[in-house]
Amino acid sequence: MSAANPLKPSERMKIPRQAPFEQAADERVRNFLEVSQGFTEDRALSEAMRCLECKNPVCTEGCPVSVDIRGFLQRVMAKDYVGAVRLIRETNYLPAICGRVCPQEEQCEAVCTMGKKHPPLAIGKLERFVADYELDHDLFMPPAPAKKLEDKGAVVGSGPAGLTCAAELARLGYQVTVFEALHAAGGVLRYGIPEFRLPRRILDIEIERVKALGVEIMTNFLVGRTATIDELFEEWAFRAIFIATGAGTPAFMGIPGESLSGVYSANEFLTRINLMKAYRFPDYDTPIAIGREVAVVGGGNTAMDAVRTARRLGAEKAYLVYRRSREEMPARVEEVHHAEEEGIDFRLLTNPVEIMGDSHHRVAGMVCQRMELGEPDESGRRRPVAVPGSEFTLPLQTVIMAVGQSPNPIIQSTTRGLRTGKRGVVVVDDNQSTSRPGVYAGGDVARGGATVILAMRDGRRAAAEIHRQLRPAPTPSTQ
Hints:
Shape: globular
Strand content: 15-25%
Strand order of the largest sheet: 5-4-3-6-18
CATH superfamily of the largest domain: FAD/NAD(P)-binding domain
Number of domains: 3
Number of strands: 18
CATH class of the largest domain: Alpha Beta
CATH architecture of the largest domain: 3-Layer(bba) Sandwich
Helix content: 25-40%
Distance between the termini: 40 Å
CATH topology of the largest domain: FAD/NAD(P)-binding domain
């Protein structure tokens, strides 16, 4: 597409970065409605006009799934919003989700040329705008189906990696079945991300669009128990299987008091809130006890989701306890900012050493120790070192541990010839192939914990490799 922006580069640079509309902090801490309301059309157009339309669009290189960002922004400038979202969907079949939860500030926006001297383009907010425009105006049309193939592909898990792989295979013509252990599809998108960041309505619509490609989703089906990988090959006649079961086994710190009543893993806490609708008690009979004073231990997006959820459930004091400084915190900048606005008390350079209980074995407090940063560790972040004699106690009734997770071991333990690595992750090569022929893996089950968009990249790579293996390109004639 030729240049769509009539403004000179110098004029584009004078346009300020547009901000989305958001709920006021004092209102949103009392509800689970979406915090960001996104762009209006006027703001979306103004933001798109900031694009420099670089000849070498490094933003696409920064995108894990290689979205044609320049192309979709040019369509926004031309007010072809449906054309824009359809272009995105060529490489990212879940644009309404990624526009909300993808860490663009670390990827496409991080390398945006405009960002060298000015704020980078709000690429993620524009992706959300065009996806929502299509949705609000009921303009979605599934891509034209490919020629149907006889080969059957199975996808185990319906999170971002699984949904992406399923969509890609279906678009190539394969018969695809997704097996989901829980009663509703979505994986971490459903049970791990709060309603105020990713509304269930949006997730449900995106899942229906995957199904519109001809994908079958079977829920309440636990691969490794209901049927093994071997049985899916031998009895169900699948030609390829992609494992995308995530990392739902929580980690704990191993400190005294973690077995007390009132201590949760973030995984359990968010699952009960999101999947089982505890935030709508008593309409849904899934209560969860929250004390007046709550601490969430960790510094990632899961920790941020948990502490902001606790605040909404009535915690008068909600602490975020993290052993490093803000600079080392892996959570998204936007989520940290929103948490601060919502009154979360950040206790940085602080590490728990013991959870204290009362006479009824319920949480009564947490002993913490102040830390300082030393030399970098294997992650490249400066190692936290305890400050002697700096212990203090936070009075608490609830502690939520968000310090990591690992894959559920059921498939690994029931699948012959499947190589695993540290913490039970499934070992894969650059094409997501495992040690077991015909079996592929991606997302958190192969990474141990990562972002939605990286899981989606794994799903795309796996689908491409499956297609190469099942439909190899013809060998050129030597005559």
